[in-house]
Amino acid sequence: MSAAPAGEDAAGQAALATAWALKAQCYAAWSSEPPRALAAAAALQQLLDQAGPTAAPAVRSELQALCDWTAGIACLIDGRMAEALQVLGRAGGGWQALGQPLQAARVQVPQIMALAVLGRFDDAQALALQAEAALHAGGDELAAAKVRLNQGSLAFSRDDHAGAVAHYRAAAVRFARAGDPEHSVMADIGLADAMSYLGRFDEAGHFYNRARLRAQAHGQQVLAASAANGSALLALAQGRYREALAGLEATRRDFDALGLVHRRIEAEKSVADAYLELRLLPEAIALYTGLAEALALQDAQATLPWVQAQLARAWAGAGQPAAALRCLAEAAAGFAAQGNAAGQATAQAIESQLRLAAGDVDAAVAAAQQAVRGFEAAGLVAHAAAARVQAAAARGRAGDAAAALAECQALLADATLPPQVRARARAESAQALLALGRRAPAQQALESAIAELEDLRAVLPGEDFQRAFLADALQPYLQRLRLALQEAQPPDGPGVAEVLHWLDRFKARSLLERLGGSARPPLNAADDEPLRQRLDWLYRREQRLVEDDGESPQALRAEAAALEQRLLEGARRQRLLAGADAPTRAAGDTQAPYARPGPLDVAALQAALGPQRVMVCYGIVDDELLALVLRHDGLRLHRRLCTLAPLQAAVRGLQLQVDALRAGQAWGPGPMAQLCQRAQGRLQQLHALVWAPLAASVADCRRLLVVPHGPLHELPFAALHDGTQALVDRHDITLAASAGVALHALQRAAAAAGSVATAPGHCALLLGDATRLPHVARELQAVTDSLGWPQVVQAGGLGDTAAAVAVGQAELLHLACHGRFRADSPLFSALYLEGGALTADQVQQLQLRARLVVLSACETGLGEPGATDEGVGLVRAFLMAGARQVLASPWAVDDAASADFMDAFYRRWAAGQPADAALADAQRALRAQRPHPAHWAAFRLYGVA
Predict the structure, then answer these.
(1) Residue 664, in any domain of the structure
(2) Domain-embedded: residue 672
(3) Same-domain status, 617 and 764
(4) Domain for residue 191, yes or no?
(5) What's the pLDDT at 521?
(6) Which residues contact 928 (CB under 8 A, 6 or more apart)?
(7) pLDDT tens column, 829-877
């Protein structure tokens, strides 16, 4: 074969020189500037395409091997691990064919990473040993050090963290000798990751900080983000939640901006892990479900079982054992295939949780003990501690309180125990102490657990996290309340104040903490606007279809629900990044300006009530409904009013009577009388259950402040009937979310004393949808006439300029429109105005000074109370925005009855009557015309002014 012409040979050599330069550029940039690496790979492919047809065979083969090498790196950057493995394998084969085994060994270094991500750990380990030997033989110690770095990552992926530390240390030494700062930083990050899992938090923090500073100094963005992500995970493990969540979201965005798909997915998993730990379960489930799909598409078998395990844990926490078991089986199979002992221990810990929830305590103990052994063998200190608490809980439920106590006390002796594990260990030790009859130390342990839970809750960035965290941590509060109830003898003795304090300690906490504070504007409003416009269109379209056809298409509802979650999650991520709504201290820092909630100031509450008011505060403990009656001169406990089953049945029965009235098109006198009789029968039944036992305690007081609990939130208290009179005939009734909220409202009202009739500079804002509700124009005009105020603004929505100005000044805000409560997503409960939907999420961002907000719409008085009685919905949103009182209805209201009621109410309120008295008078007046309680008792008053 003749030699190539000199010109062709020169051109080929020039092409090779360019190709090697592009390969070096790709390699140098792929972990620090991925776009630059991708550009280099694309340029090399273009070079091959141009030179290939005319290049000599040897040149063409070398160009092809270099092109495959960089193409494999591009696949790694994009998270296409299986494809990366295939392309890199082709590159290695090309180098072998060219007689260059050293280059073939160098190609194997990124192949090790791809194999590890795919979960092929044995293959990765074998390739690492082979590559390291070849590189040593070829004299490339730097590439051999990279193999050692990958061996550290491989050991870490297999949860051999002690082995990972050894590999990373050896690699760090080699990189330092070779003067390679980039890979030295990688070794530091890997070392910190492994030390975190081994519980060596101080050392891990040191290496993360060092790696981050060195990466920033060298402009290594990816490595700086990786170090920051590790620091955030370390903060999460130590209970520094605000710092952790901000760091995790920041690094997720960094990886996304850098185009690192697999790293972004890993960072998103870390955010989901934080959501799970903080018990934001629906959000965690949504994230894990999406991640599992993405990882399955990438065939990322190293990470996928962990996501499935966490999804199982989330489903278990959400009370969905079937879904949890399905995910757990998938995770366990993945861990078994990898031979991952730590993963198998994780599966056993989740199994113990599920067994315990199902009442299979022996199996729960056995699974927890297996998990402890597995974690301890892997050196995972924090995981082992959490599993030991789970084992203690299972032993306690199995009747071995002494063993449970010993386990918890051994854990609590460790000063390095993570705060979240410590709080649970204290709570379990209290349960064991109670079982052993040691009441005093049990009480102390419960109060210590509650104090630690309060510390952890205080640093959470936003009330969604705070609500979820508290709802999941209620057992110590409830147990402490049980102890207070046992000590509350006699029923009007000094111990009753403790009952009120512990009952109130977990009720409507987020609402109380937000009252009096300035509302924050919605985050990311500009980016949200297109989503909100689309959502408004969907709401309007659905509303029209419901009005026309009586049906709401599933596709519309599904799209709206997806947009709602995007808006909520987007705002949450912005809040995480900004650290909004969070105190500035870390858990356990007693020097920062945050005061743990003290005992409810019963004396201050009594003084604020005065002789004119009595407060009735309900509570449910286990299966018992109880009530506390607080007067200015005393406090009395009423126990065992009823059990839950008859109460719930009676509430459902009343709701059926309300629904029966709404179902009819027109009722004649005979059927209407029968409906009224049936409704009154239910109201008498409810009166006997919840009111008759304490009626004598409040008989001499006209004004009542009622704090409902659980199913009592659904009751029209004014309509409860003793067979002779309804409560509205004896009392003017206002509702409050908790005793603490009531105290705040009473003190605020006292500071702003004065009736509506005597207040100067009246301003009212009346909003309504007159385009689809023909009665609205008449209603708004009737309100205007009843008020007789000098400044009344009428508008179709807050988009109107005059309305936007008036909303922050108005003493009265009246909204007449369609309304809808969303039990599936309470923050998107909405009022449908002409300008679009006004959701609870948007309402609580307003800044109001209104004495009164009147919601003349259906279902506006409904809320999702949950375990902590927050009552999330429109009423709570308006109170959070600054309104002093809110008048709202829990069910669909008849248009004509509503108009008559509003006329009666406003004439009295504008004349100077307090809102509760005006409400009672209007209810009695309407009852004379429309006797069914669904008409006259539809509206309830929340708050004090």
Answers:
(1) yes
(2) yes
(3) no
(4) no
(5) 45
(6) none
(7) 999 888 788 999 889 889 999 999 999 988 888 888 888 888 899 999 9
Please, what is the average pLDDT of the chain? 88
Residues 656 and 690 in one domain: yes
CA angle 501, 506, 511 (to 5 degrees): 110
**What pLDDT does 597 receive?**
67
Quick one: pLDDT at residue 753? 67
Mean of pLDDT values over 393-402: 94
User: Which residues fall within 8 angstroms of residue 222, CB to CB, at 6 or more apart?
Assistant: 31, 32, 33, 34, 255, 258, 260, 263
DSSP character at residue 726: B
* Residue 941 tokens, joined: 């008053």
DSSP 8-state assignment for residue 721:
B
- Tokens of residue 523, six digits: 């985050």
Strands ordered across the beta sheet of 634-643? 634-643, 624-631, 613-621, 703-707, 732-735, 940-942, 885-888, 852-856, 812-816, 764-768, 792-795
Name the amino acid, one letter, at 183. Answer: H
User: Which residues, 6+ apart, have CB-to-CB distance to 399 below 8 Å?
Assistant: none
Residue 670: the pLDDT is 73
Burial of residue 325 (CB within 10 Å: 0-12, 13-18, 19+) is middle
pLDDT tens, residue by residue, 119-131: 888 899 999 899 8
What does R_g of the chain's alpha carbons equal in angstroms? Answer: 33
- Locate 25 and state its tokens: 């550029």
Sign of torsion over alpha carbons 697, 700, 702, 703 = negative
Q: Are 619 and 484 in contact (CB under 8 A)?
A: no
Contacts of 696 (CB under 8 A, 6+ apart): none
- Residue ranges in 735-871 assigned as alpha helix (H): 739-751, 775-787, 801-806, 840-843
Assign residue 515 a region: left if phi > 0, alpha if psi is -120 to 50, beta otherwise?
beta
d(CA 416, CA 443): 24
**How much is the average pLDDT of 588-608?**
69
| Confidence (pTM) | 0.86
Tens-digit pLDDT profile for residues 252-279: 999 888 888 888 888 999 999 999 999 9
Domain hosting 632: range is 602-745
Residue range 25-36, pLDDT digits in tens: 998 887 778 888
Establish if 128 belongs to a structural domain.
Answer: yes
- Judgement on whether residues 889 and 781 belong to the same structural domain of the protein: yes
User: Is 774 in the same domain as 740?
Assistant: no
Q: Tokens 């009202």 correspond to what residue?
A: 749
> What tens digit of pLDDT does each residue of 710-742 get?
999 999 999 999 999 999 999 999 999 999 999
Is the CB of residue 367 less than 8 Å from the CB of residue 349?
yes
| Cβ partners under 8 Å of residue 875, min gap 6 | 855, 860, 861, 863, 886, 888, 942
Amino acid at 883: A
